[in-house]
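#help-structures
NK: newbie question, is this the right format to request a structure? protein is KIB1-4 beta-propeller domain-containing protein
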Amino acid sequence: MTKRDWTSLLIDLVVRIRWILLADDVTEFVRFRAVCCSWRSCTPNPKDLDGRFHPRKWIMYSSLDSPPTTAFNFVNLSTGKKLMLDLTELRRGYSLIYVVDGLCLLENNRTHTLALLNPFTRFLTHLPNQVRHNSRSRQFPFVLEHAPGSTLSGVYITSSSMVVLRFDPDNEEDRTHLVYAKPTNCMWMTIDINIFPSDSFMYRDQFYIIDPNEGLVQINLHHETNSQTHVTTVVVPCDRFLMDLEDCYLVECDGKFIMVAET
C-alpha cells in the first residue's frame, strides 16, 4: 500500500478545507492542523482571541455542583459529538465560575482576577483586574467583589471576545447592572440599568433585555474610558399584552431570536 504524502496537497485546497472545517466546528479545525507541519504552516493558529475559534456550538453538560474534578463533559448541539476535557487550570489556582458558548470563565483563587479559557484550543486570556463604575467614577480592585448585595446572574461573550457580566440585585430597591470589557482593555466598565431583573440575551454582538415598561430594549456597549453614558434603543415597544405576562424569555431559533412568553 502506497504511503500517502499529505504535504503534497495543494495549498489552495488546504486553505479551502480549513475554512469549511472552521465554519462547522473548531475541534475539526484543530485536528486538521495536527496532521502535518505543512498544513499548520498555512492555517491560522487558534490560540488567539479571534471569534472564529470560539466553540459556539458546544456546551458543558457536567454539573458545576458535582464533586471536585478537573474533567468535564462537553457536547456539540449540532452533531451530538461528546468530548471530556481536562481543565488543568483548576489544578493551578483557578476556579470555574461560568461556562458560556463553550468558553470557561475562571477566577484566580489568589488575586480574584478573571480569565477566559477556550478548553478546545487551550488558549487562556487574562481579563482586566480593575472596574470603573460610570455613575460614581470609582475604581474597584476585583470584578466579583465590586458590588456587594448583587449576584452574578449571566455571562455573555461577543465575537470580538468582549465579556459581559450581568449582576442582579438581592433586593428590589437596587438596579441590575452590566460589567463589560475586552481582554485588551485595561479596565472593566459598568453601567446601571433601570430595569427590574428580567431575561436578557446576546445576539449578533448586541445585548438585549426585556423591560416590562418599555418593551424589548437593545443596549449598545461602548468601551470608551471617558464615556459616562450608554445608548438604549427600544426595538419592540411594550404593549398591554407584554405587561400582563408573568415571564418572558429570549431564545435563539434558526439564526434568529424570538421571545417566548409564559401566560
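mod (FA): yep, format's fine, and the C-alpha cells are attached above. Confidence is low (pLDDT under 50) at residues 225-229.
NK: thank you!
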